[in-house]
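TL;DR need structure tokens for one chain.
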Amino acid sequence: MMSHAEKQNEALAGHLLDHYAGRIARARRPCILGLSGLQGSGKSTLARVMKAQAVTRGWVTDVLSLDDFYYARSEREALAREVHPLLRTRGVPGTHEIELMMSVLAALPHASSRLPVPHPRFDKGRDTRISPSRWPRITQAPDLVIVEGWALGIRPQLQAALAKPINALERDEDADGSWRRWVNKQLRSYQPLWRAFDALIVLQAPGWEIVRRWRGEQEQDLIARRAPLAMGAPTMARFLMHFERLSRHALATLPALADTVVEYDDERHVTGLNHG
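>> reply
TL;DR here they are.
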């Protein structure tokens, strides 16, 4: 028997595919749907359900995760030395290889067994990419590509908004604001990717405190399963501070930029579904 969450995802996936079916069917190239949600919002699970349902409808479908395009640990170590120590931690804009994702998307219309399109996978347990020889290969041009990630669609903040630290991490480890200004500047290079989306779907959480709770619950599940490198509460609290500024910015600004907004309550129950 399916849980409430599973039933909800099945119904939501079906509704979203119904809504965008015409666009997918008419597209002369892969239709690209951006699925944006903050940590713990369930975007990865929803993307998998959407893919499964799309395949049953006869659409060749692939899912790409922004997380898989994180720079390798060695590259982030270089950023930490050359730009700012906080860039050692993956997650914020500037720690993804956006040019690689753009090149993968550009190659997909021509994917075949003779011209397979490899794309990276990131091992979060080891905090680095898996070897390129083990990357998945797409061997058929897709009808639908679902790109999921926590930062999708976010635009840079105004410079004035960067002046005041938003939490203890920024106050103590970015006192001069150089890290947050650099991260904000990197968002400019993400905008061509956002413009490549045929539509942006936003999973809207009630607020930052709920996002923190959801992400903490995910980590508790990892700890219970004795997953490698699962984070305890103090480590998790510091980790999430890297994301707080842009997460709050996303909560405030993304609904107005989205084609579809899925609203959730504190327990991840869908309370609203709005198409722009």
